[in-house]
Structures are given as C-alpha cells and as structure tokens.
C-alpha cells in the first residue's frame, strides 16, 4: 500500500505506517521466549542438581514450542524421540553419525510428503532443522570420541530442547550446552551482548519490511518522483528495472535472515550460551551472521560461510569432512545437498542451494588457479599476512578482487530474486513455487548460471 505514495507522503507515513507496527509485532511474538530464556538463566545460577537444570530447560523448551506451534509441536518431539532411540540402540556402533543422518532425512522427507499438511510442516521447519542438526552432530561426536558416552535421556532432551535455541536456533554443540548449564555469573558484558544483538535484530527486521521493499522508488529514487506519482513504477520495462526489483527482493530476504540470526544470538546468549573462556576471561562472543561480509562480499565462498556461521560450521565439520574422501567437488555438492534436504523439500531453496554449490566451487578453483598464474592474493578467502604470493597490494590485484566482488553481488541478486516478500512459501503449492522460481530467473535471462558456465570454461582453458 505504501508503494503508491509520493516520496514526501511515504516518509510521512513510514514511522507510524511501518516502523512502529513492525517493531511492536516483533516484540509481541518473542517476548515470552525472552522471559523464559532469562528465567532459565537465573535458575541455573542457583547451584541446583544437573538433572533439575536439564528438566527446567526441557520444560521451557516444550512451553515455547507450544507457544509457536501449538499441538503441531508433537512432530518435533517425535523426531527427538526417534533420534535418542537410534542413539541408544546403536550405542556400540562407530558409524552412528552417518546412519542417524539418513534416518533423520527420511523422517523429514516422510513428514513433508505424507505425515501432515505442507503449510504447518513448513512453519516448524526451523525447529526441526535445529533438532536434526543437534542430534546428528551428537552422533558424530560420539563416533569421534568428542563426547565420551551416550547422554542420559534427560541430558539429551535438555540439549535438544535448550530454550535458547529450540525456536530460532542457532545450532550449538552438546559440550556448549553443558557449559551453558554451569550458570556463569551475570555481567555487564553479558547484558551488553544481549542488548546489542536484540537491537540489531530489530533494525534488520525494520529494514527487511520497511526499507528494502521500497529501496529504489523512495530511499534511492533511481526513477525520480514524477514516475512514482504516475503509478508506473512496476510497469517499467527493461533489464535494469528487473535487476533493481530483484535486488530489492534479495535485500529484503537477506535482512530477514539477519533478523533471525541476531534474534537467535539474543535468545541463546540470554539463556547462558555463546561464550568462550580464555584464562578465566569470559567473552560473550556468539556470532551467527555477518551482514557486511554478505552485502559487500569478497567472494561467494565468504557469503555462504557468513550467512549462518553455526550452520556453516556444522556442515563443514559433520558433512563436508565426512564426504571429503570422495573428492572436493563431491564433498561440496553433498554438503549443499544436505543443506537443501535439511531446509525441506522446496524447489526454490533446493535450486538456490545447488546453484550455490556449483558457483562457489567454480569460483574457488578459478581464483585458486589465477592466484598461481599471477602469484597474486586473489583467492576466495583473504590471504594470511605471510603468504607466498609476490603480488599483494598492486592496483590490478585490487581490481581483480573488486571484479569478483561485483560478480558475487550479481550472483546474490540473481539467486535472491526468487525470495519475493509478496509470496508466502508456506501457503503456496509447490508447482506454483517452481513456476515462480523459473519465471524469475528467466526474467533475468539465467544470467548467473550462464556466467558460472563461462567461468568454468575459462577455468578449463587456463588449467
């Protein structure tokens, strides 16, 4: 509705028409979760027996699951029970991680296809993914000896339903959960971290809802105010307008992800997780996402690792390393396929993630080859200070890195164009989502895929 206003009217209506309602709605949806996280944090400081602490976080986790999903939470509970049953029955096995991963993926696929309606299933996707990642990581840690023995049922359920992560994440390891239960003292550093993460989450929510969708007509008036008043903005033809609209969709999607990331930082830290300890110096330094590394990327490799840091660590530690025996390319594609399956059977997510697999791999090997040819610091990741490259800070080195950064922004805009804020992916039929994805990429002439193919051809030529 706000898109039909003139620029002056838009900025007059913005505070009460979008900013305030968005912030209020954001707080209304999560205030009970925040209170429960704080109560659990205070309870764990009382020096209670460990089983009481586990029970308290299970109770808090169950209550928050019911707040968000009501009786549909039973499907999350069933997944956790299935995982513990598997771990207990296979407690003498040494390949629990692989088999549990397959079991969890089968459960998720069956749930989406047969056990309940897709709409409600998709609403629980985030919590199911967190539960799945926790159980799978625990199984691999048991195989590798990181965790000595199968936890008791109450320990396992406490970890799975840890109130700070059960709704929005992030993934944390079993050992991190046990450290959180030790009940570290309240401090100004802890309070500052919680407050900053909360403010960042709300800023990102406001940008996603109130800034990004109106970026070019109002905040950066590319086409001018006259065109806005004529109501023809959405009818502008030409490739430039399509890319600008795609960038708006992409930016809105990005900041909705940052909102969830910072909110998960808030809840996890509020509940007592997310710290590192060095020589009795406690640092509340949990980091879930790095927006600047995504919006101004050095490479697509940097984007995928900065998008969700805990999930990136999970995939690298438990999927990529396990699949590395089949070769780097196979390991990369298995990792992205696993990520797609964890996110659910959705064509647009699967298409984006598999495309990312090809894009990041080809970019990585191409830049690695060019770095050897030119002996220059043009790798996907920034070189350490003592690298052996001869050309480090020459102008042409900067230009090559800037060119790859611009290419990464193009890829992000192209891939993010399918995440239209006007489309409710939990309500739409899969055929409609598939058609929408293909239509969006067709409008952009399949540019990113063609560019990726061109980069692969170039890589083969210089190999």
Main sheet summary: 2 strands, antiparallel
User: How many E strands?
Assistant: 2
Instruction: Order the strands across the largest sheet as they lie in space.
Output: 1-2
C-alpha Rg (nearest Å): 23 Å
* Mean pLDDT value: 89
Helix content: over 70%
SSE pattern, N- to C-terminal: HHHHHHHHHHHHEEHHHHHHHH
Shape: globular
Give me the number of helical elements. Answer: 20
Q: How large is the share of residues in beta strands?
A: under 5%
Distance between the termini: 53 Å
* SSE class: mainly alpha
Low-confidence stretches: 226-231
Structure description:
With 463 residues, the protein is mostly helical. Among the domains are: 48-182, no CATH class; 290-462, no CATH class. It contains 20 helices and two strands. The chain has helices spanning 7-44, 50-69, 74-89, 96-115, 118-123, 125-144, 153-160, 174-180, 188-211, 215-219, 225-230, 239-270, 291-295, 300-307, 309-323, 328-343, 347-374, 395-416, 430-443, 447-462; strands at residues 276-278, 281-283. The protein has a two-stranded antiparallel sheet. Strand 1 (276-278) and strand 2 form a beta hairpin. It is globular and about 60 Å long. InterPro entries: LPLAT_7/PORCN-like, MBOAT_fam. One of its GO terms (molecular function) is Wnt-protein binding. Keywords: Acyltransferase, Endoplasmic reticulum, Membrane, Transferase, Transmembrane, Transmembrane helix.
């Amino acid at each position: 509705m706000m898109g039909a206003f003139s620029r002056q009217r838009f900025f007059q209506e913005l505070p009460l028409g979008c900013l305030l309602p968005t912030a209020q709605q954001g707080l209304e949806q999560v205030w009970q979760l925040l209170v429960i996280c704080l109560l659990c944090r205070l309870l764990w400081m009382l020096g209670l027996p460990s089983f009481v602490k586990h029970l308290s976080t299970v109770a808090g986790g169950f209550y928050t699951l019911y707040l968000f999903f009501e009786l549909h939470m039973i499907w999350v509970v069933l997944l956790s029970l299935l995982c513990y049953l598997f771990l207990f029955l296979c407690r003498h096995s040494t390949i629990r991680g692989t088999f549990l991963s397959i079991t969890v993926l089968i459960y998720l696929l069956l749930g989406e296809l047969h056990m309940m309606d897709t709409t409600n299933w998709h609403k629980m996707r985030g919590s199911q993914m967190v539960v799945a990642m926790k159980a799978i990581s625990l199984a691999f840690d048991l195989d590798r000896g990181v965790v000595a023995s199968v936890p008791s049922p109450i320990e396992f359920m406490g970890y799975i339903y840890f109130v700070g992560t059960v709704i929005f994440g992030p993934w944390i390891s079993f050992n991190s959960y046990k450290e959180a239960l030790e009940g570290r003292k309240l401090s100004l550093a802890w309070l500052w971290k919680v407050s900053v993460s909360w403010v960042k989450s709300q800023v990102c929510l406001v940008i996603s809802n109130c800034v990004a969708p109106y970026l070019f007509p109002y905040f950066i008036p590319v086409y001018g105010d006259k065109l806005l008043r004529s109501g023809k903005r959405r009818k502008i033809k030409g490739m430039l307008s399509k890319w600008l609209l795609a960038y708006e969709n992409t930016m809105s999607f990005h900041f909705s992800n940052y909102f969830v990331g910072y909110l998960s930082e808030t809840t996890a830290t509020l509940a007592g997780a997310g710290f590192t300890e060095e020589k009795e110096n406690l640092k509340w330094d949990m980091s879930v996402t790095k927006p600047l590394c995504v919006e101004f990327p050095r490479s697509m490799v940097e984007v995928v690792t900065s998008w969700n840091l805990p999930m990136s660590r999970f995939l690298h530690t438990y999927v990529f390393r396990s699949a590395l025996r089949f070769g780097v390319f196979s390991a990369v594609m298995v990792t992205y396929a696993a990520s797609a399956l964890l996110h659910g059977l959705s064509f647009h997510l699967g298409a984006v993630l598999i495309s990312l697999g090809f894009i990041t791999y080809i970019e990585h090997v191409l830049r690695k080859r060019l770095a050897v040819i030119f002996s220059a610091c043009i790798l996907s990741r920034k070189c350490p200070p003592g690298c052996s490259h001869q050309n480090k800070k020459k102008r042409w080195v900067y230009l090559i890195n800037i060119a790859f950064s611009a290419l990464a922004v193009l890829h992000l805009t192209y891939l993010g164009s399918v995440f239209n804020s006007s489309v409710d992916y939990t309500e739409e039929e899969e055929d409609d989502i598939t058609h929408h994805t293909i239509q969006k990429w067709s409008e952009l002439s399949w540019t990113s895929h063609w560019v990726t193919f061109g980069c692969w051809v170039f890589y083969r030529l210089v190999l």
